[in-house]
Amino acid sequence: MKKFLNLFILCLALSLVVFSNCTTAKALDAKPNAGSENLDQNNIDKAVEVFNHGQKKLYITQSDIDLMAKLIYAESRGEPYEGKVAVASVVLNRVLSPKFPNTIKEVIYQPKAFSCVNNGHIAAHPDKNCYAAVYDALRGSDPTNEALYYYNPSISTCSWMQHTEKKDTKSIGHHLFFKC
């Protein structure tokens, strides 16, 4: 019995080493060549997800995922699940757009970009649906048709949103998603 237990522990330890090496190899395979669109080499080493969009790749860290989940909770609490995915998609679409900063953190903390961001902080406690929406958007689900903006027309106080010409609009829940 003691031999069996020792063999079992050895097998378990080896499988953990192999699993660890496989996940590291997967992360290394996903790493870009020089000139990554959105991260410096230090952050690329921390990437846990890769978002592919055409020829572009975004290297996503766990802190990016956590920040997006907080934003989704704060911006779309009470909205349907599709609306949560849509908010995450807008963030990713902005990172990909030359009109906006090129990291998730910079897009979310861009001044006056999102009403829930106050003094560089988002007061939110995301739930599992918020994280699921982030991962669905990272897998390529975009119910907005690549929208860069959204707002709630019934409560918005932003005159720019109300009076700007909107293209490719789509209503999801209480939000209107669009391009300019």
Automatic annotation (TrEMBL):
InterPro entries: Cell_wall_hydrolase_SleB (IPR011105), SleB_dom1 (IPR042047)
Keyword annotations from UniProtKB, A to Z: Hydrolase, Signal
Domain of life from the UniProt record: Bacteria
GO molecular function: hydrolase activity
Signal sequence segment: 1-27
Residue ranges occupied by any Cell wall hydrolase SleB domain in the UniProt entry: 78-178
Zinc recorded as keyword: no
Keyword Hydrolase appears in the UniProt entry: yes
Protein's name in the database: Cell wall hydrolase
Organism: Clostridium cibarium
